Amino acid sequence: MAQAWKCSGLRWSADGPVLLWGGGRRTALTWGKRVAFAVAEGGVRTCVGARGHPCPAGAAVPARSTGARCEECARLDRAHSVAADTLADDPRPYHVYLAWFGPGMVKVGITAVERGSARLLEQGAVCFSWLGVGPLMAARRTEELLRAALRVPDRIPYAEKRAVRAGLPEAAVDRASEITALHTRAVALPAWPESLAREPLQIVDHVEAFGLAGVPAAVGEVSGLVAGGVVSGELVAAAGPDLHLATGGGVVVLDTRLMTGWGLVPATSAEPTVPVRAFREAAGVQDGLF
Hints:
Blueprint: E1 7-13, E2 16-21, E3 26-28, E4 34-39, H1 71-78, E5 94-102, E6 105-112, H2 118-123, E7 127-134, H3 136-149, H4 158-163, H5 172-175, H6 177-187, E8 197-198, E9 204-205, H7 207-210, E10 218-222, E11 230-239, E12 242-247, E13 250-255, E14 264-265, E15 276-278
Parallel strand pairs: 10-13
Antiparallel strand pairs: 1-2, 2-3, 4-11, 4-14, 5-6, 5-7, 7-8, 7-9, 10-15, 11-12, 12-13
């Protein structure tokens, strides 16, 4: 029986997307590379634990969970995190940013300055600009200010992001137009925190990094892995945690967060057999395409 590997998720390096595996193994992903694996027969998806520690209960988790954690480990992982506002005394400087994912999809967010643009690559931001820099709580207040004054959300569901990637404007200036307009309005707000320095508009575009130029429209997304199921396809693009895989039935998007918690082995089938949920825009394609 082939050795089963545990995936630790997708990370973005200076050279592009990389799959991480238990034991420190890394798989660099390049356009045209065939991504193929299967879930071990009889396999069960188990909790990945929290903050570097295994789940003490070895609890089973749902196939469609992108967190791959049981309730208790999810609570522990979120504790002492910036997202949960439990690190108010974090001394590191933070960036406030505006990120664009598609027409009408702009969000505001914050990230530690030391992380650079990694957070934006992880979220699948097609383009972005820094807005300001300063202490954590000032960055948080600015984030709340934009949400209230300009009605800019701080979250956009991944399902909405991935459904529009094939229809993005071809010109970079068109992709940047919404951020450009919002940046001007944001820095002019009178309630801007004094300790947060405004940053000039400087658009960073990720279309080339993600391989999205001319990418075929995806017909659907993998809804979850199953024991004995196969994922197989040629990598044509990647954005955030998503891999766009060309298969015999069209391009399918795989959220790599669905891979964690499973024992994965080499694939023996050339085509995917996992369930795929069709995008609404892909008329005539039914759920369970494969």
